[in-house]
Each structure stands twice: as structure tokens, then as C-alpha cells.
# Entry
Amino acid sequence: MRSISSCGALLSVYYPQIFLILTSGSYLALSSVVALGANIICNKIPGLAPRQRAICQSRPDAIIIIGEGAQLGINECQYQFRYGRWNCSALGERTVFGQELRVGSKEAAFTYAITAAGVAHAVTAACSQGNLSHCGCDREKQGYHDQEEGWKWGGCSADVKYGVEFSRRFVDAREIKKNARRLMNLHNNEAGRKVLEERMKLECKCHGVSGSCTTKTCWTTLPKFREIGYVLKERYTTALEVEAVRATRFRQPSFLRLKQSRGYIKPTDTDLVFLERSPNYCEEDTVTGSAGTRGRLCNHTSPLTDGCNLMCCGRGHNTHQYTRVWQCNCKFQWCCFVKCNTCSEKTEVFTCK
Amino acid sequence: MGSLSRQAFFQELGSGCLLPTVQQGLEQVWQLLLICLVCRLSWRLGLPNFLKHLSTVVGGFYTLYLFFELHMVWVVLLSLLCYLILFLCRHSSSRGPFLSITILIYLLLGELHMMDTTTWHKMRGSQMVVAMKAVSLAFDLDKGIVDKVPSPVEFMGYIYFVGTVIFGPWISFNSYMDAVESRKLSVSWFMKSVISCVKSQLCLLISNCVAPYLFPYFIPVFGNKLLRKWLQAYENSLSFHFSNYFVSFLGETTTTLAGAGFTEEKDNLKWDMTIAKPLYVEFPRSMVEVVTSWNLPMSRWLNTYVFRKALRYGSFTAIIMTYTASALLHGLSFHIGAVLLTLGFITYIEHVLRKRLSAILNACVLSKRCPSDCKHRHKKELWVYLINGTFSMLALLHLTYLGSDFRPQDGVASHTIQKWTQLSWTSHWLTFALWVFYRLIL
# Structure
């Protein structure tokens, strides 16, 4: 009896300490695993510039969002150019932002703009959904009163400024060379982000007797990213050719000037700009990064860019014929079986030679 | 990482949504509340009735201007038109129907010709309250409940009563005259005001910050594609419900603060104004209960001045006319008209079906709860609860379906139809099925 009692007392004394040791051990192990994981992940991502790698290591929670944003941009790019010779593909080094286009062309301009906008969009969305620490709803909207509209901010406004700033810090960090291409890339990145900011939407909720709108609470929301894609596609068609200007001889290029102008006219913030004429994208060319149109599907009756004449650059196209066979016109015969006819359909698929 | 993001979400929700919503909620209504309080206090000064009416007219005008600015002239025009009709027809015994027709024409003209949709949509609530007050006064005059046409200042005091002019609710003319007598300030009066105010802000928070994120942040249910549609519809519906409760509790606050909204029974005064019963809507017994609990004063108004007068044409016709009147009061919105008409059919079919089931099964399965002394044989059996529970679930489904597309800038017919198509016209089909079942058991 005495022995049992003392044993119980011993357990009750020791148990809290054991629990504490286990808990702190788990905690230490957990945090070291997280830190180790972040380093491994950041080092394994191809094509990150040194500053980008540093941001990745300090904000591992954001890198996933950034990857999703970049992918969002690439997917939108491929959608917008799905019928063209250039379909948002390129030879060259594979990076988190897709393959880099070597020629400073209109296509490169679009790619950089849509990717920067995609990252900003994804970060802003993650903030609103509470998936990113250090950011949330737009605090500037608190207490804001629009005198003319008569409504006031409420709800959770998407913090697009945070998303844009984060995109600026990360995406622009890959520009490490001091040359004209850097100026072009920075300009186009910013143009993409500006388009996103311009397209933010205002949503309101009405409160009033029986659903009337006596009073409102309002907040801003992100547009669908496809809308951004369409806007940037329009900017792409009116992109401006520019050249870099040096402030003085022997200095690095300091700003961009419209090439066709007679003076030093600069492009506007939301123009897309390019330095070099586009290649024709007909042939595979490692120098320009063109993937070529060989093997691409085309439409042999279309006069537009997806037509075989234009898509294949006059090389002609191959025709592949397929025959599909299926049972049709089935009828029940008395008694007792089902009889069907055999139907077939021929389809042709055209690919560039 | 998942739990971290959830915690981060709630932190951000607090600072980014709860705080600004409360701030904006109070910021928009503090002046209205202050004017109601000032009006109440001034009425306690022993002023002659003339000045009491005048003070609430001034307060009412000021709050109308606060919320609608110069567009308030439309409300003023409507009230002047109403008084003109009442005065010109003071010797007639059909003032009710005549005034109703006049108001209907005014509202339709306003909707179709006089101004843009956004502005009309904004002040629709106040127009509705004014119209209801004028119509009820006219019918009460016809019946002798009010013995003579009130003086202009009395009429305007009633119409512009600062406690009800912006967020409602409708109160009868006699209730207003009772309020003018000005009951003593008391702890129960003050507590009623404060509690209703707190409730209204709470409902606003739920409407803005909880309902839109209900799934999966507050309730971790993810669901497949089909279920997600219904979960999202429920979120929208819940958000709309609590927006309504916000306005209802706000109406309770302003009405009580201004000195109306009490019942008196042998020197026992109770400040017990109730506009909406949220629990009866969110956990409904039937759609009939939902409809009456949504806005009690409006429900009383429709019952007294529309349903009972239309009952001589048959109960089905009376119900449809009641819902039509309700829709017209809400303005020419296809969406609201469609919802209310659908609601009318749903409630009618449920009512007659449950009545029939109650007779056949001799059980307490009516749309409204049986009193304790009812003569049904089966009251607390398990299958009685099951039947009632099934109808409750049906009501929840109907509410989700009907409330799923209440959004600020609606008004396009195709949007309502598109939303209902997304949900496969479920409530319409279910209602049709119940009607077929009802015909089968006749």
C-alpha cells in the first residue's frame, strides 16, 4: 500500500516535466524542418536571381503564391496567343517564369507584362483570402468616404497595392544587367501591374428596408485575370518601338525614347514597349528563341493567323485522316435481338510541314 | 501551414472587416440615432402637440436629407399628394382604394419615368414606408378607426416621424398619436434601445464578415462541385438575411429611441417592438412562418389592408394579390417580383398540403404551430416530428434557393433566371411535386 502510493506520487511529479520536454522537442524539430525545407526549395528553383533567392528564403510562404501567379500569367499568355505562330513558347532556359525570350520583341513585352500582373494578382488574392501573413484587407479603405456616391467603405477590400509592391520587389529583382533590355523589362512589368490596378472593381452590399439600398457598405475586388489578358493583348497590338538613351557618353542607358519620334518622347506608363523587331517565328532558331511552327495544328480553311497558309509560312501542311466508326440506328427486332447499322465519319487534321 | 493560414485569416478578418464594418455601420447612423433621441427628449418638455408634430417633421426632413440629399423631394411629393387626396376625399367612404390606386400610379411613374434606377433603388424603402402609412390611414378613416382627417401638421408628423422615416417600420396612425403623448423615460426604454442597436451592428457584422466566408473558414465543409453551388447559395442567402435583420433591429432602435413601439396594458408599459424574428427564419417550421417572421409590421399591414380585403375573392386569389401588392411596394424589379410570386406559390401549396395532411393524419403538422389545446390526436409521436422536420428542411432549401442571388446591382431578369437555372429550378420543381401530391390526396 505504501509502495503503491509513493509510486503514484512520483508519476504525478514527473509527468508535467516529461510533457514539457516532449512539447519543446517537437517544436524545435518542427521549426528546423521548416527552415531546412525553405532553403532546399529556394535553391532548387531554377533561374532565380540572387535577390529573388533571398526574398524566397525570407518569405517561404509567398513563393508558392508567386509560382502560382507566374503560372497564371503563362497560362493566360498561351490562351491569348493560341492561334498565332508564336503561342507563348520559347526555346531557352527554363525558369519559374517560363522560358525567357531572347529577342526584345513585342512578344517578350507581352510575356513580361502578363507575368508581373499574374504575380500581383495572385498575391493580392492570397492576401484577401488570408493565405499570406503580413497582409490582409486594404487598410487605406477604412473610413474612406466618397462624397459624391454617398457610400462608405466596408467589408474586405482587396489590397492590390500590397500585391503590386510585392510583385515589383520580386519580379523586378531578376533584372540584374545594366542594359537597354533591363529598362524594357522593367517598363513592361510595371505596365502589366498598372493595368491590374486600373481594373480593380468596386462591389457593394445594400442595406435597407426590404432589400432597398438606403445605405451601403463597399469594397474593392480583383477582376478575373482573363480580363487583364484581353487588355494586355490590346496593348500588345499597339506596342511601341523604343530605344535606350544614355544621359552622357560612356554611361549606362538611363531611359527609353520612342524610336519614331523626333525628340525625346517617352512611352506612357501603360504602353508595352519593345526594342527589336519580332522574328517571323516560322523556323526553330536557338539564337532568337523561336520554337517554329513545325507540327502545329492549323485550320486549312481559315484566312486568319490559325490558317495553314499563314501558320505554316508557305511550307505547306500535312493532312492526317482519321475514321471514326460507331453503331447507329439500333432497333429492336421481334423476337428477340437488336440490330444496328454501322456508321463512320472521316475527319482530317492538318499540321504544318 | 493550413491552420496557420486559417488563424491569419481570422486575424485579418478582424482588422480588415469587423472593425471597418462596425465603424462604417455606426458612422452612417449615429446622426439618425441622435436626432431620434433629441426628438424624444424634446417631447418630454411639455410642448403643445402642435410643436411636437412640428419637431418630428423637422427631424424627419433632416434625416431624409442626410440619407437621400436632394432626392428626398420625391418622398415629400408623395406625402403631399397623399394628403391632397385625403383632403379632397374627406367626405367619401372609399378613400382607401382610391388612395391606393393613386399611390400605385405615382410609384409606377416614378419608376418608369422620373429618375434613374440607382437613385430609386436607394430610397425605395422610405417610399414604401410612406405609402404604407398613407394607405393604412385612408382605410382606417373609411372604417372609423380614425374618426376624422388629421390636420396637416398631424399628418406630416405621422409621415415624417423621425423614428420610422428612414428604416421603417410601418406603424399605425393611432400608434403614432399614442407616442406623441410621450411616455416617461425609463431604464427599460433605454435598455431596449441599446440592445436593439447592439443587435443591429452584430447582424451587420454577420452579413458582411461571417456569411460570405462561412464555408470553409467558419464551418470546414468543402463539398464537391454540386454541393459547393448550394453552399455558396446558402452563404449569399444568409448574408442577405442578416442584412435584413440589421435594418430591422436598426428600425427597432430608432423607433424605440423616438418614443414609439410600446404596448400598454393596464398601466403596464412594455417597450417590446419586434420587427423581425431571426430564429424563426433561420430555423423555420414552415415557409408561412418565415414569411410572417421576416418583417412583422409589414406582415400585419399586408394582412389587414390587402389580404382580408381580398379574401372575398377566394383564399388563393387573396394570397396572390397580397404577394403582388408586396411586389409592387418593392418597385418594378423583375427579381423581387419573381421571388415574391414564387414565394406566394410555395407558401400557398405548403399551407394547403399541411392542412390536408393534418386532417387525414389527425396530427399537429399544420404550417403554424398548434396551440396546446388543439384537438388533434397525434401531437408528439416520432413520425409527427419527422414530417415537421422534413418541411423545415424544405423551407431551408427554399430559403437558400430564393435568397441566393440577392446582390446590390441586380435588376436584370436574365440574372435571376440564370441563377435559378444553375440550381436546376429545384424549388420550382419541388413545389410542383408537392402540388401534385396534394391533388392526389384530396
About this structure: Chain A touches chain B through 37 residues (CB under 8 Å). The longest strand of chain A covers residues 317-333. Chain A has two domains: 32-281, 293-352. DSSP finds eight helices and eleven strands in chain A.
